[in-house]
Design a protein that fits this description.
Elements lengths: L2 H28 L4 E5 L5 E3 L2 E11 L1 H7 L15 E11 L8 E4 L2 E4 L2 H7 L7 E8 L6 H5 L7 E5 L3 E6 L7
Parallel strand pairs: 1-9
Antiparallel strand pairs: 2-3, 3-4, 4-7, 5-6, 5-8, 8-9
Length: 175
């Protein structure tokens, strides 16, 4: 291969790398990582026109859920296909009506609220309480993680950017 062609290819590769590095630097400058705001278990958080706090969180099987809320068995359109369901109980006051954008995270895994189950549970709860259900299926976790899963493996995420708001689900939260 001739020398000019080799230098031309090397210069083109260098130009692509420098352009990529400049672009990444610019994106990171314009859109910095979110500021983390971690709310300890049962501590109240000002949110919207009110405040809220995690009262409890529990992992249930569908059978256990139906045992706690037998009314759900008669609910039309409710098809529970999850092997387990994590239910987060939030106490709230003020203008908070719904938290439909809340998400559950465990490391790189994340899930949104099970909307049909949320809608079915909503009329069964007392005033000032929200039950947020999240489906858990074994295909999303390693067999070891699935066997030893606890509530402390998860975090409730209320917002992502520019401030990531995380509610701890237990006093001792795993990193």
């Amino acid at each position: 291969m001739n020398r000019i062609l080799k230098y031309g290819i090397a210069a083109a590769i260098l130009a692509v790398l420098l352009t990529g590095a400049w672009g990444i630097r610019k994106v990171n400058r314009d859109y910095p990582a979110p500021e983390m705001k971690i709310i300890p278990f049962q501590e109240r958080l000002s949110w919207g026109n009110g405040t809220l706090a995690v009262q409890s969180a529990v992992i249930l099987t569908p059978e256990e859920l139906f045992g706690l809320y037998p009314e759900l068995k008669n609910e039309k359109g409710l098809d529970l296909t999850a092997d387990r369901i994590l239910i987060v109980t939030l106490a709230f006051d003020g203008g908070i009506k719904s938290l439909m954008n809340a998400a559950l995270e465990a490391g790189a895994w994340g899930n949104a609220i099970d909307q049909p189950l949320y809608g079915a549970l909503r009329p069964l709860t007392e005033a000032g309480v929200l039950l947020l259900p999240f489906d858990l299926t074994p295909d999303r976790f390693s067999p070891e993680k699935w066997a030893s899963m606890t509530v402390s493996d998860f975090q409730l995420i209320l917002s992502v950017y520019p401030q990531k708001t995380v509610l701890c689900l237990e006093k001792e939260m795993k990193e």
